[in-house]
Amino acid sequence: MIVYIVLIPLLSSLLTPILGLINRKTGFFVTLINAILTFTIIIYSTRKVYIYGPERYFFGGFEPPYGIEYVLDGLNSVIILIIAFIYLLSVLYSKKSLEKEIEQKRISLFYCIMNLYFTGILGIAITGDIFNLYVFIEIASLSAYTLIAMGLKRESLMASYNYLIIGTIGATFVLIGIGYIFMATGSLNMADLKLRLPSLYHSKMVRTGFTFLTLGLMLKLALFPLHIWLPNAYTYSPSTISALLAGTGTKVSAYALIRILYSVFTIDFDVNIIPFSKIFIFLSLIAIVMGSLLALAQKNLKKMLAYSSIGQIGYITLGISLANESALQGSIIHIFNHSLMKTALFFIAGGFFYKQGIENIQDLKGIARKMPLTMSLFIIAGLSLVGVPFTAGFISKWYIVIGAVESKYYIVIPVILLSSILSLVYIWRVLEISYFGESNGNEHKEELPVPLFFPAMISSVLCIFFGIYTELPVELSKRAIEILWGY
């Protein structure tokens, strides 16, 4: 069953342009069917994993380490569940949003590439083969470059080009790292590598491979200071893609990093043999603060949200690098929660552009009186981003703080408090202008059309739901920890 999780989006990407020759509108419906069907299969497969344990598929019947293996377990089931959900919301949002943001003759091509991107990120999460991981990273990356470039602005092409250059460097590092590890072990299967590597941890070849691999994933993850591709990519891509990349792209890269660090290598290697943990804690704390400060300095709403994502990525990598159960659980929960709240915020920012042509924060004067329901969704997602109690963002930050205390990294607590205050300041700036600013035109109430409002509403409301009813993300993250710690 799990092979269909990748196969259905791949077939949809092939089918979309063919049917688009008959009718341009078929691209949306093929993509929507793909999103619904894949999400349904993922829910069914995830339920089986939690009842019966990990599910595996061997291509061509060749068992690992000789063949390519797909694995669905307690860790990647969390990731593909949120990926598929965000993708479904993005597809629903795209039908109306794309009317103003790309050339209509490119609609079929857009959905073709969007399905291919979906194939890539699902493949990254589900593969158990380290070289296959690289292949899917390239599929997702090449698709993302194309989707960003489809924006109508000239800046879209430059953003895509910069992302292409940085992404290619990152992919090259990943491939070099895989090459070194293969030369040292003779294997590409992740489970097999975990058995073979411990006796080779003092090998310079293994250490070099690890360094290249983690550096490449850091570039893909946009961890500060390797973040330079992200702000423009999020800002100048079509709103559907801004939301999709923010909700899935960096999150699946974070998953890949977790999988390499804890399922291919071990905690002993990460903490004691290579000083990975200390270096990443330092970089993560800088990312948390600098992301918030840079967000505070922005005039463009989408760019503010983009820099905010850099800070939130810092939270995820901080939980990973603290290397204890509580912190890593917080990191996994934050991947889940940040996908929801940042997707919601980009949906709303895209809605402002669709309805009012607004991109800059100063132009939002009085928008709350014109679009009160939409602004209420922005408040919910924004407070979750800050980490206010009873929102999803608070839960993940709480677990990371607990993990920091357990590891005796008390410096983490004031850094998180400072970042939360800075987040409140830039979110409040938007709210102040929206509610108290004097608008130039009439203030006739006119909300977003349903295809735009519904995805934003669902993702925003879930930020409150999972902040109060925390059982699902907490339980899913516990199962993921069990896989990583070998319980």
Topology record:
Elements: H1 3-20, H2 26-52, E1 55-58, E2 69-72, H3 76-97, H4 107-126, H5 130-149, H6 154-185, H7 190-196, H8 204-221, H9 230-236, H10 239-264, H11 267-273, H12 276-296, H13 301-322, H14 325-356, H15 367-370, H16 372-386, H17 392-406, H18 412-436, H19 450-468, H20 471-485
Antiparallel strand pairs: 1-2
Helix pairs in contact: 1-2, 1-4, 2-3, 2-4, 3-4, 3-10, 3-14, 3-19, 4-5, 4-10, 5-6, 5-10, 6-8, 6-9, 8-10, 9-10, 9-13, 10-13, 10-14, 12-13, 12-18, 13-14, 13-17, 13-18, 14-16, 14-17, 14-19, 14-20, 16-18, 16-19, 17-19
Brief summary:
By secondary structure, this protein is an all-alpha fold.
Count of individual helical segments: 20
- Coarse morphology: globular
Strand order of the largest sheet: 1-2
Largest sheet: 2 strands, antiparallel
Average residue pLDDT? 86
Q: Kindly estimate the percentage of residues that lie in beta strands according to DSSP.
A: under 5%
The whole-angstrom Rg is: 21 Å
Helical content stands at: over 70%
Query: What's the SSE pattern?
Result: HHEEHHHHHHHHHHHHHHHHHH
> What structural class results from the helix and strand content?
mainly alpha
Separation, N- and C-terminal Cα atoms:
25 Å
- Regions with little confidence, pLDDT below 50 for 5+ residues: none
**Record field, number of beta strands:** 2
